[in-house]
Amino acid sequence: MNNREKEDYLKDYSILKGEGKSFFPYAVAKDGGMAVITMLVIIAMTLALGAELGPKADATTTSFSPRPEWYFFFLFELLRVVKPPELTFVATIGIPTICLVLLLMLPFFDRGPERNPLKRPIATLAGITTIAAMAYLTILGARAGSPTEIELAAVGQEDGKRATASSGCLGCHRIGENGNEIGPELTEVGARLPRQAIARTLVNPTAPMPSYAQLQKQDPEKFQDMVDFLASLK
Amino acid sequence: MKLPTPPIPKALKPKPARPGSGSSSNGHANGGGNGRIHDLRPGTSDGAGNGGPPSKKSPGIDRAKLKEQAVEVPIGAAAWLDERSGVSPLVRGMLYRKVPRGTNWFYTLGSATMFAFVSQAVTGVFLAMYYNPAPTEAYESITRISNELFLGEFVRGMHKWGATVMIILIFLHMARTFFFGAYKYPRELNWVIGVVLLVLTLAMGLTGYLLPFDQRGFWATVVAVNINASGPVMGPYLADFLRGGSEFTATTLSRFYAIHMLLIPGLIAALIGAHLYLVAKLGTTAPPWLKAEKAKALTKEEV
Ligand code: HEM
C-alpha cells in the first residue's frame, strides 16, 4: 500500500466506524453471548467426555503409544508424508519452521490494499489449501489407531513379539498388517539390518524416536527378546 | 467499574467536588444522571404515602434515605477512584468507542479465545492447589484430584477440554482475521503479536500434556523433545533447557510445570494486553465487503 492508499483506507475506515454502533453495550453483548456459549461447550465436553487418565508413566516402556494431543496431529503426521529417514528433519523441523516464518511475515509480503477475500484469490486459495491440508493430516492422525497387536506368525519368537507389541513401536512403524506409517516399515528389518544394528538403533535412535536404553538397563531379557524378534523379520 | 471500594465516610466526601457538571468525565456524568433519577422516584412514591418530603423528617431508618445511599455509595466509590486514578475517561473511551458498521459474530472469536484463556487460568489455579510435580507424586496427585476431591474430576475435565476449545477458537480467530484481511495496514503488528500468542498457546498444550505423568503424555513428550533436539543450531540447547539436562529426570517434570503455569501464562497475559491495546487504539476492521457509501457525499458536504 502506498501513502495514498493508506490515507484512503483510514478515511473509509473512519466513516464506517462513524456509522457503527457503540462498543458498549452492542459488541459487549455479543462477546458476552459468545463467552456463555464457550463456557457451555467446555462444560458439555467435560460432562460427555470426562477426564481420562492412562496408566502411569514408565521409562522402561510397556504398552505406551507416543501420541500427541489431537491438535498436534497435523505436525506429527507430516512424518507420514515425508518418507525417507534422511529427510525426517524436513518434516519435524523444516516445514513447521518455514510455515511459521511465512505466517509471521504475512503482513509484510501481502501488502496490497484489497481486503475482500473474493478479490484476492491467491491469499484466499492459500488459506483454504492450508486449512484443508491441516484438516487432512489431523484426520489421518485421528484414524491411525494405536494397535498393540502383531498378527505375523512368529515361530519361536512369542516373547519377542509380545515385547515388541507392548513397547509402542507400532505407534509409528508398520509390522505386517499392523501399525502406523510414520517411521520406516519394519516388516522386513531383519533383511535390511543385522542384529547389532537393530540393537544400536533401539538404544540410540535418530530423532524423533525415543530411546530404549532404559529398557535395556532394567529388563535386558525383554530387550533381547525384542531384538531377536525384529532380527527374525525377513 | 464495579470495583468493590469501601464506602467513604460522609464527612470525608468531597461534596461540591464535581467539577464541570458532566463534561469532565464519565463517572461524574453518569453518576449525576443516575442520582437524579433515583432521587425522583422515592420522592414521588413517598410523597403519595406520607405527604411530605421524607429526607429530613425522621432520624430513624428511612427507606428513601437508604435507597439514596445505595445509589450514592457506588457513585461515590467510582468518583473516589477516579479522583485518585483519573481512569474514567479511559474506561469511557473503551466502552463508548464505536465499532464499525457490519461488525458481526465473527468478531467475537477473539474475545471468546480470551475467555477460554481466563477459564484455563481459573481451573488451573484450582488444580495447582493439589498437584505435585514430583515424578513419584504427580500421577498420584492427579488420581487424587480425579477420585477424591469434590468436583475434582470436573475441574480437571474443564481444564483439559478448555485447552481444546481455546485451540479451536484461536485458529478460528486467526482464520477470521486472515480472510478479512485484518492483518493489513495498520494492523500488521497485531497479527505478529497474534502469531506469537498462537505459538505460546500451542506450547501450553505441549507442556501441559506431560504433567499428569501418564504413559501417553510422557512418551509423546519424549518424542516432542527429541524432535526439538534434532533442530539446527538452537535445537539441542532448547531440548536441554526443556529437560533440564540431557536426560529426562525429576527436574524435567518440575521444569515443565514451572513453564506451563508461570512462564508461558505470564507471557500470554502480557501479550493479550498488548494485543487488546492495539485493538482498542486502531479499532477493529469493518467487514471487507463493506464500502463507505457516504464517503463521497460527506467529503462534498465538508468542502
Ligand atoms: C490468546 C490468543 C488471542 C486473543 C485472546 C486474541 C484476542 C483478540 C481480540 C479480543 C480481538 C478483537 C477483535 C476480534 O475479537 O476479532 C483481536 C483482534 C485481532 N487479532 Fe487476536 N487474539 C488472539 C490471537 C490471535 C492470533 C493467533 C492472531 C493471528 C495470527 C490474531 C490476530 C488478530 C488481528 C489481526 C486482530 C485485529 C482484527 C481486526 O481489527 O479486525 N490474534 N484479537
From TrEMBL, chain A:
The keyword Disulfide bond does not apply. PROSITE patterns: CYTB_CTER, CYTC. Residues 155-234 form the Cytochrome c domain. Residues 13-143 form the Cytochrome b/b6 C-terminal region profile domain. It is found in: Membrane. The chain crosses the membrane at residues 32-51, 87-109, 121-142. GO terms for molecular function: electron transfer activity; heme binding; metal ion binding; oxidoreductase activity. It is a multi-pass membrane protein. Pfam families: Cytochrom_B_C (PF00032), Cytochrom_C (PF00034). This is C-type cytochrome.
